[in-house]
Design brief:
The chain is of the alpha/beta class. The protein is built from five helices and eleven strands, in the order H-H-H-E-H-E-E-E-E-E-E-E-H-E-E-E. It is globular and about 45 Å long. It starts with a helix and ends in an 8-residue tail after the last strand.
Length: about 200
């Protein structure tokens, strides 16, 4: 398959079709696997997670664990209604949240409290599909690719490079995805049954 739109539609249906018990089992399996196999999480002080939606794998158990370990946990916030960029707001259990234009909950904090991607040590990214080379297909808005271009793009403005981990379900695997030059490849893609660490040229 070479049509990103068709792939996106197919794999969104696949993850949405997973029953609740399989979603929960996958969530705990990925939490365990991340803690066992990704050493970067032990060194990270600032970690960006995401709120699961549309069948995405739920990282709340992992986020709660990291928060209890004293890590600063962040969630993505739309930078503005017009710009397809993300910034990150610190999250703590029970804090005030508000929904963005996509219905996704964001921490309700002053804009001057938001941090950039470059200020994160580690960023977890949701996905719609992934392949053997670690390519990641998102929802189509390009938010993560635009946001991370400041760290990993050809004209990167920042020398700070967060460690990138994409998480998903096993049913979101496809042998090969179409790939564009601006697509950001995560350092690791992890699901209950997959652990993909592609060869990178940035030294990370």
């Amino acid at each position: 398959m070479t049509d990103k739109k068709a792939i996106r539609q197919l794999f969104r249906k696949k993850r949405l079709a997973l029953p609740a018990y399989r979603q929960q089992l996958a969530s705990y399996a990925v939490t365990d696997k991340v803690l066992r196999k990704i050493s970067a999480i032990q060194r990270a002080g600032t970690i960006a997670f995401y709120i699961a939606k549309d069948g995405e794998i739920d990282l709340l158990p992992l986020m709660l664990y990291c928060q209890k370990q004293g890590r600063q946990c962040y969630l993505p916030v739309l930078e503005s209604p017009d710009e397809k960029m993300l910034r990150f707001a610190e999250w703590e259990p029970g804090q005030a949240m508000s929904k963005n234009k996509y219905g996704i909950a964001e921490p309700d904090v002053p804009r001057n409290h938001l941090l950039s991607a470059a200020e994160m040590d580690l960023i977890f990214m949701p996905l719609v599909a992934f392949d053997d080379c670690g390519n990641r297909l998102g929802m189509g808005g390009g938010y993560y690719d635009r946001t991370l271009a400041q760290c990993y793009g050809e004209s990167a403005a920042s020398s700070q490079k967060p460690f990138l981990v994409a998480t998903g379900h096993d049913v979101q695997y496809i042998p090969q995805l179409p790939h564009d030059a601006w697509d950001i490849i995560p350092h690791i893609t992890i699901t209950p049954g997959h652990f993909i660490r592609p060869l990178r040229m940035d030294g990370a």
